[in-house]
Amino acid sequence: MDFLIGGLAAMGATLFSNPLDVLKTRLQLQGELKPRGQHAVYYKHALHAAYVIVKNEGILAMQKGLGPALLMHGVRNSIKLGSYQWLTTNGYVCDSEDRTIFYRSLLASGFGGAAGAFCGSPLFQITTQMQSQAADKIAVGHQHGHSGLVQAFQTIYFRYGMQGLWRGASANILRTVVGASAQLTTFAKSKDVLRKNHELFQHSTVLTAFVASIVGGTCQTIFQTPFDLVCIRLNNQREKRRSS
Question: How far is CA 46 from CA 35, 112, 141, 209, in A?
């Protein structure tokens, strides 16, 4: 049940976060492998990017890649969150007083993150490639021209083989291990601190989880972003066809 709940929660969140991922992908691909000042700047910052995308591609462009993104986040987070919760429930993460053991939490979250990232890597690649597709005058990065999830799977497989579906998997795993370890460990430790030092949080599990989630998500973003940039570019670049 923990695996199912983790996956469904992530898919629900994706409905709201996918437009932000579209903006992030475009900004991260802009100026790829070109010196500063020697490339076109279509997107100045997040708000400007949103304006430019809507103006040139319409409001629905903010949800590009939503289908594969839903599946990708569902797969990755069901494994990541489900395995972490299972390990916590079975006493592998906390001590006898239900306090999080730091190094165990790092190992548990890293393991779950790596497994989820590996399984979801093909979907991450397709999501990235579909989110990067843009009108010609504001396009950044290689344009793969996918029309949908199934067509993208078929195209990548027939052009590059099974290995092509897992292109960039090593970077994706490293990115997720760093992000998951930072997120889940700070989330768990934050709950411990809040419940121990503030009476308000001792009587409200919802408020405690809400505040701890903000802390965990912020730490995840700080530590994961450099690896995310590398991962996005690896997954979107053009690759040579496999030899027949």
Answer: 21, 31, 17, 28
